């Protein structure tokens, strides 16, 4: 297990270097933001001076190594537009995106696995209903569903806020209220994915001979299902949950904008639109680290559940 | 077991639903004297010396006072400066400051503080330094008098001093100004009730002493860059006031909101290669006039703007001194006349006009434009340009002409930005003697004379067909009439915090 973790951490470091270098190179192709920073009245000389101040007239490799030197110490520089430290900006925004992604993932895992198991175990109309709902949930565009939720629950019924985020520290109830709609909007597709995957895995395992053997030995039904069937069906479900988390993190860009949640997605969109390289790089690093950590945790969980993959 | 789990989950879901349903309407925003407004951008930073305009103004206007103030027709009113005068050469501006003003930190807002701010702004890097570029020296005459020396006459300076460059911050707070504003404005930023990037709360400042009254005791600004979020926040009552797209007018009305129209951006074809360096045909005024006659602006307004806009032939803002109403009928859609003008110019068979196109902002505009110009014999060849590179590509002289949306402001500001020989939006640096001479005369003229000369300048530019403006879009301000009252004049291009009054207030 230790070797697995060490191997994965070493690979993660290399991966981070590749991702940041690639982002840096890509950002060097986007338009020079000097004009946008200075305003439309700026002269060409002022624009050239600003470009020089930002270091855009120096080689990409030199700028990257400089950035890397600071980033290793936790300093991601200062946003070219807001003049605020990127580290502080990300620290303020991370809890919002994390709340969104973690809650959506937890809900899709719990609901998806529960629905998938129920469908596989009970079969009949429940199985058909779960399969049909999953297909429908897959087909619904997330943005459209988000807008529909807002129109019904915020604009018409006024049960929930249409926009904004309330931190848990400020008001736990407000935190739940501010997240119900965005989490529902992004979780619906994931619930469907996890349910479909779980249903298929559980149905396959239920048909195995050893399940029949366990039952014939008189083990209680719930013990067979939860201890044996679910444990064997869990690895593919967990893998799909981790993939959904990564997807949700990306989907947050759209959902955060619709619900005016000032999370990493909004920051990434604003940074990319304005060519604010320090902000984009900061978000990319945090996003990459999150994805790497989640994948590592899922791999460890799968290897704990299934000894065959521990080699 | 499974059934129990499902039942528990169902109960938990109901508890969450009840908690949310019982927690009161989302529209609750506090006391009756609180105004919650949606602004389509976050404040870029709180330091006036760096500078920021547009959507940051509402934030900065709350916490800072500027030297002068802008009226709705872009005329200049006193604010921190009670009066001012230029010398005969218009290169020395003497200003008298309101006595007894203090910053929120208790320090005096005197001539020394103003000098510290202006010196810091003009020597910095950013829009403020560009705006104060003509100021070469700032002298303190006495605590309430300050003298600005200019490198040349600058009729735009008093306007700039009404904007972010003229906002005065406490010198003691300079070091932390990017994040923590310290000014003499009507409100204080309530840090405890503020979530940076999302929601900013302002409460009345006890140190505010200027005569301009602000109606609300407290107001909250929510940064809502996404148009859907803005519409949802407005129609659900989470904000009392917000700008929505013209197409959303019906949704706003259905939600019980009132709306006000404000002029937005002017869309048009900019023929910047007036010397004919890239496209020789554009050097002929008859060709440019033919293009004006050849584009069916009303059809474009219907197809692209869904009818939400006003036809215009001018780049200056309606309601400002330069605007001449009768000029809007100068170029009616008339393909026959356009063809005749092209023939007179020696191009009876038309010519090829290379233009840039983009596919994110107004993608459907380009085929319509090409089709209309083809009818008068001009064959458009598009070069795709990334939408976020438009301004940069256009200002470096890569294209002889381009479609552009411009937000007109104060007349001198516009003239120096788009018409002057050195203007950033004159990429080929075409020096027109008539325009240069008129601008020279405007720069030293008195106010009444200036208005006349601005009209002359605008008429000349329209007659010379430097642009083919099509229409000005409409910005719709939707608001809760039970909470706030807003009066806007026709053509009023901007609103200020003072325009928002509590219902029932005088």
Textual characterization of the structure:
The complex is a heterodimer of chains A (311) and B (506). The termini of chain A are close together. Chain A has helices spanning 2-27, 34-38, 44-53, 60-72, 86-122, 124-139, 142-156, 172-206, 209-216, 221-258, 264-274, 277-305. The radius of gyration of chain A is 24 Å and the shape is globular. The model of chain A has no long low-confidence stretch (mean pLDDT 86). Helices cover 78% and strands 0% of the residues of chain A. In chain A, α10 runs parallel beside α11 (264-274). Chain A has 311 residues and is mainly alpha-helical. Chain A contains twelve helices and no strands. With 506 residues, chain B is an alpha+beta fold. Chain B is 29% helix and 22% strand. In chain B, the strands form five sheets. In chain B, strands 1, 8, 9, 10, 11, 12, 13, 16 and 17 form a nine-stranded mixed β-sheet that branches. Chain B has a four-stranded antiparallel β-sheet with strand order 4-5-7-6, with helices on one face. In chain B, β6 (135-142) and β7 form a beta hairpin. Classes of the chains: A mainly alpha (311), B alpha+beta (506). Chains A and B meet through α2, α3, α5, α7 and α8 of A and α1, α4, α6, α12 and α13 of B.
Question: What keywords describe this structure?
Answer:
heterodimer, A: about 300 residues, mainly alpha, 12 helices, about 0% strand, globular, B: about 500 residues, alpha+beta, nine-stranded mixed beta sheet, four-stranded antiparallel beta sheet, 15 helices, 19 strands, about 30% helix, disordered N terminus
What's the shape of chain A? globular
Major β-sheet annotation of chain B: 9 strands, mixed
Mean pLDDT of chain A: 86
Oligomer type: heterodimer
Tell me the β content of chain A.
under 5%
Q: How many DSSP H or I helices of chain A?
A: 12
Largest interchain contact: A-B, 63 and 60 residues
What Rg of chain A do the Cα atoms give?
24 Å
Share of helical residues of chain B: 25-40%
Helix/strand order of chain A: HHHHHHHHHHHH
């Amino acid at each position: 297990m230790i070797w697995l973790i060490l191997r994965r951490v070493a690979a993660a470091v290399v991966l981070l270097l590749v991702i940041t270098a690639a982002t840096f190179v890509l950002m060097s192709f986007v338009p020079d933001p000097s004009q946008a920073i200075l305003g439309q009245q700026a002269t060409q000389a002022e624009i050239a001076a600003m470009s020089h101040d930002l270091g855009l007239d120096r080689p990409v490799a030199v700028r990257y190594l400089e950035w890397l030197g600071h980033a290793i110490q936790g300093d991601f520089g200062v946003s070219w537009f807001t003049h605020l430290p990127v580290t502080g900006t990300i620290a303020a925004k991370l809890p919002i995106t994390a709340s969104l992604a973690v809650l959506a993932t937890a809900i899709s895992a719990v609901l998806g696995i529960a629905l998938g198991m129920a469908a596989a175990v009970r079969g009949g109309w429940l199985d058909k209903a779960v399969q049909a709902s999953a297909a429908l949930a897959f087909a619904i565009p997330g943005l459209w569903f988000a807008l529909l939720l807002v129109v019904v629950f915020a604009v018409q019924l006024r049960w929930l806020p249409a926009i904004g985020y309330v931190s848990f520290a400020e008001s736990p109830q407000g935190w739940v209220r501010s997240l119900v709609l965005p989490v529902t909007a992004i979780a619906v597709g994931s619930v469907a994915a996890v349910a479909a995957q779980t249903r298929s895995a559980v149905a396959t395992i239920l048909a195995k001979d050893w399940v029949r053997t366990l039952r014939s030995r008189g083990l209680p039904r719930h013990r067979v299902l939860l201890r044996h069937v679910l444990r064997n069906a869990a690895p593919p479900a967990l893998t799909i949950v981790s993939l959904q988390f990564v997807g949700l993190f990306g989907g947050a860009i759209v959902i955060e904008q619709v619900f005016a949640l000032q999370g990493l997605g909004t920051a990434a969109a604003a940074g990319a639109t304005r060519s604010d390289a320090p902000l984009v790089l900061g978000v990319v690093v945090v996003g990459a680290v999150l994805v790497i950590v989640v994948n590592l945790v899922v791999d460890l969980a799968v290897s704990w559940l299934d000894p065959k993959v521990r080699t | 077991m499974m059934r129990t789990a499902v039942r528990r989950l169902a109960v938990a879901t109901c508890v969450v639903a009840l908690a949310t349903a019982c927690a009161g309407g989302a529209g609750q925003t506090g006391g009756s004297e609180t105004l919650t407004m949606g602004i389509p951008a976050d404040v870029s930073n709180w330091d006036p010396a760096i500078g920021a305009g547009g959507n940051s103004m509402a934030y900065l206007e709350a916490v800072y006072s500027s030297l002068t103030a802008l009226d709705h027709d872009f005329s200049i009113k006193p604010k921190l400066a009670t009066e001012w005068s230029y010398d005969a050469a218009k290169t020395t501006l003497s200003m008298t400051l309101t006595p007894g003003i203090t910053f929120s930190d208790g320090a005096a807002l005197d001539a020394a503080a103003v000098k510290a701010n202006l010196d810091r702004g003009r020597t910095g890097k950013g829009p403020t330094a560009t705006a104060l570029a003509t100021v070469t020296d700032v002298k303190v005459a006495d605590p309430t008098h300050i003298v600005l020396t200019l490198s040349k006459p600058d009729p735009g300076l008093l306007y700039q001093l009404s904007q972010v460059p003229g906002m005065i911050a406490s010198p003691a707070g300079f070091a932390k100004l990017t994040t923590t504003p310290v000014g003499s404005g009507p409100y204080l930023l309530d840090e405890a009730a503020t979530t940076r990037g999302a929601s900013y709360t302002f409460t009345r400042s006890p140190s505010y002493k200027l005569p301009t009254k602000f109606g609300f005791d407290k107001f909250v600004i929510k940064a809502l860059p996404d148009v859907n979020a803005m519409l949802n926040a407005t129609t659900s009552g989470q904000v009392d006031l917000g700008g929505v797209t013209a197409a959303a007018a019906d949704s706003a009305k259905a939600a019980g909101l009132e709306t006000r129209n404000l002029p937005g951006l002017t869309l048009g074809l900019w023929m910047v290669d007036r010397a004919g360096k890239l496209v020789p045909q554009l050097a002929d005024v008859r060709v440019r006039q033919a293009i004006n006659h050849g584009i069916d602006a009303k059809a474009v307004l219907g197809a692209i703007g869904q009818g939400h806009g006003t036809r215009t032939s001018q780049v200056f803002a309606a309601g400002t001194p330069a605007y001449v109403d009768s000029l809007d009928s100068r170029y009616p859609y008339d393909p026959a006349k356009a063809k005749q003008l092209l023939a007179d110019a020696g191009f009876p068979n038309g010519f090829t006009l290379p233009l840039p196109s983009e596919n994110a902002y107004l993608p459907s505009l380009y085929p319509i434009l090409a089709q209309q110009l083809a009818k008068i014999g001009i064959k458009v060849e598009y070069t795709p340009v990334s939408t976020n590179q438009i301004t940069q590509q256009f200002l470096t002289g890569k294209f002889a002409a381009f479609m552009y949306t411009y937000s007109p402001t104060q007349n001198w500001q516009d003239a120096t930005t788009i018409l002057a020989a050195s203007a950033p939006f004159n990429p080929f640096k075409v020096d027109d003697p008539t325009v240069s001479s008129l601008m020279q005369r405007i720069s030293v003229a008195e106010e009444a004379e200036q208005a006349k000369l601005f009209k002359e300048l605008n008429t000349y530019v329209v007659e010379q067909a430097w642009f083919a403006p099509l229409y000005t879009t409409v910005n719709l301000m939707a608001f809760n009439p039970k909470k706030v009252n807003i009066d806007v004049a026709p053509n009023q291009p901007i609103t200020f915090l003072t325009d928002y009054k509590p219902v029932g207030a005088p």
